[in-house]
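It would be a great kindness if you could assist me with a short task in structural biology. I am sending you one protein, given as its amino acid sequence and as whole-number tokens for its backbone shapes. I would ask you to consider whether the tokens describe a fold that such a sequence might reasonably adopt. The full record is reproduced below for your convenience.
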Amino acid sequence: MDRARIDTGDEVDSYCRQCKLERVHNVVALVDGEVAKVICKMCGSRHKYNPIDPEPNGSAPKAVGSGGATKKKKPSGARRAASAKSLESQWEAAMAEKDPANSRTYSMDGSFKKDEVIEHKNFGQGLVIQVDAAGKMQVLFKDGTKRLICAPVQ
């Protein structure tokens, strides 16, 4: 599957630390368009995405991060700080007219509406900026936009 087209709910291969094997997982969360969290379809464990990196010589695949795989370079400290401030100011502007006391706790089976304030246990408070009929929503958090699973719109 083309990584550029992966979305929440899609199936991906990932190393499952619970099963200790490569398994098929469902994508639960995307961060900046990259798969962040998955749920194993075999054991049901929810964990960080551990992509499989095939060995160049054709031997068994291994998880990225457990050897010589190279990681994408991150922006320099100054650019990263400027980007974080920009995201934070965007979030603050969006939340300025919202009442955080009326936020709802996020759950994957919850139904949410555009412009609703939610509380996520890992990402904090966020503002729903888009909800798809397929049960996926885009939420603006202080540290960036995340794509999360929710109940399908009826």
Observations:
- The helical segments are 77-95.
- The chain has one helix and eleven strands.
